[in-house]
Amino acid sequence: MIRSEDISKIVGGTHGDPFSVLGPHLVGEGGAAVLEVSAFLPEAEEAWAVYGDGTEIREFGKEHEEGFFSLRLPFGEVVPYVIRTKSYDGRTAELRDPYSFGQVLTDYDLYLMGEGSHYRKYEKLGAHVTVTGGVKGVHFAVWAPNARCVSVIGDFNRWDGRRHPMRLLVGSGIWEIFIPGLGEGELYKFDIRSRYQNYRAVKADPYGLYFEVRPKSASIVHDIDGYRWNDADWVRRRAEKDWFASPVAAYEVHLGSWMRAQEEGDRFLTYRELAGRLIPYVKSMGYTHLELMPVSEHPLDASWGYQTIGYFAPTSRFGAPEDFMFFVDCCHENGIGVILDWVPAHFPKDAHGLAFFDGTALYEHFDRRQGEHSDWGTLIFNYGRNEVTNFLISNALFWIEKYHIDGLRVDAVASMIYLDYSRRPGEWIPNKYGGHENLEAIAFLKKFNEVTHEYFPGVLTMAEESTAWPAVSRPVYLGGLGFDMKWNMGWMNDMLVYISKEPVHRKYHHNNLTFGLVYAFSENFVLVLSHDEVVHGKKSMLGKMPGDLWQQFANLRLFYGFMYGHPGKKLLFMGDEFGQREEWNFDRSLSWGLLDHESHRCLQHYIRDLNALYASEPALHEVDFEPAGFEWIDFRDTENSVLSFIRRAEDPDDHLVFVCNFTPVPRKGYRIGVPEKCLYREVLNSDSQAYWGSNAGNMGGVVSESVPWHGKPCSMKILIPPLAVVVFKPERGAGPAGPRPDA
Fold first, then answer.
1. What percent of the chain lies above the pLDDT cut of 70?
2. What residues are labeled active site?
């Protein structure tokens, strides 16, 4: 007989082992055994079991007025049955009993999850449409080891936490249930009651694949495996690509503010609309990659996506998962790689998210000195827990596997690897050796990089790491963190300090220009001018430039030209390419109307030409991470604020000469040393009239002379336009160009 205590717990939604009570159970032994079936059906006034060929019907007895039913069938084995109900309003329905199905997750799955090595964990936890025992339905699974009981709630059970309590798979902390008859589109959450402090919370699915549009927060059952990709050739070639010796010019974009449908209430563009507008634009500008600020689901627009709730779901602000797949597919069809900003450093405290998930600090640390970023109001992942690092690594692989992402830029790495990051003495706990290094986070980052590169060769990993931590972009087997590349925050800061100064003062800060070359080859650097540099009162890139409007544009062109000549891959934030005048505002579109002005159109044209030069000239991308790719001509001319250098390809004879004038004074008859006697064609001049410059230049090129200079066997006299960069390429055997600008 079913104990009244068990019935009370089922009816009250507090039973920790519902499968021991609900569903079919053999009672008695041998020939005296009978089949007892119990069900909790609060919506039913009456209920029947239908079995055999559908003609055998037995009525359940109602054991509790809240809707607990049971009956006994004269069978010594479990037989298939359907439950037929009549509700209080007279409607009838038939359903398969969820408690008649056995365990779905295998012991091997549970072993790998506990070990932290189930890298396709996203296929097992969460909600998945599947067929079990020949019946179609949805399998739900969630990790909540400190829960007393967990239920799935949704529209299908009127959000009643008593209706579908889950089975605990002992020893794993994972709860699961298969609910027959459900399919795509069902809204759901997990109703969790903890063993501690009578804690109860309703949580979104940590492995949810699709979410309601904020401010709603339910997860949505969704099958993401139906999209038919068209990028097999791209994915194959990606694995064979040597990205270190290839051009990487990334355009960083926040999808919610790149462009909006202003004619329709300033709404967001959808993923498919962005595919039709953003991708052609990026292709026409000559960028090799799109770097997207986080697209994973997040509740607050103002977080820009960096406070993630749905780690496995592209945000529904712009459409369904298949729409984002279409966007990525279109990028690949147009020869554009997609890099995602990924945030394994922290997560928000929103009640429906990961925070205090099962009444304990499950994904985070309990001690605030280890588990909270006071700067951001977020919680820090507990990297010492296998299940947590497995969650994160499987998430990284998920985006590459399911969405064909080409790279992951890991946000806030410095905050992960230092225990005392942005903390005063007494606000952090040293590691076991007494140091400030977060040993668990470091081990996690190494594992993440090892596994990602093992499973997906050709996929890039990049670190936003703002300190001098050594070997960030060196292989793990050589003692590094294993990233492919590292954002060069030092170069960015030095250059912005320098370029923001009035030219008359720049000679006193010349070392800001040159210091980056002291450490340029210690890491595989990406030169970045990102979104962080054009918000919070820092001004837009154009707004940082000193002088009148003409000088501001000239300074900006000079800065970009120096950046493209400097060793390292490139990243530029949206709007910087045409001179956005205001700071970036996540809540509205870029100021595309500025392109009605010639100055802004010309700057955009300049960036397009810079990207074309960068991609077409091996000297600018083949040897980015070794000293052989760079050679100073003269870095000592502080009085004139002039720099000159050479960039070389793998073939050292293939080279370009860069000369930069960081003052508004034209330098006529300026002699620089060059490697050989030939015509040096002027292949780029940022002062060209086409770029809204003064059109001073070298009439297409200059023939060098056999006059040693700057330690080189030859030299040439050139005109360096004001606030400009000029780039020369040798053309051996070519005839003379125009007259030398000796005057």
1. 98
2. 411, 464
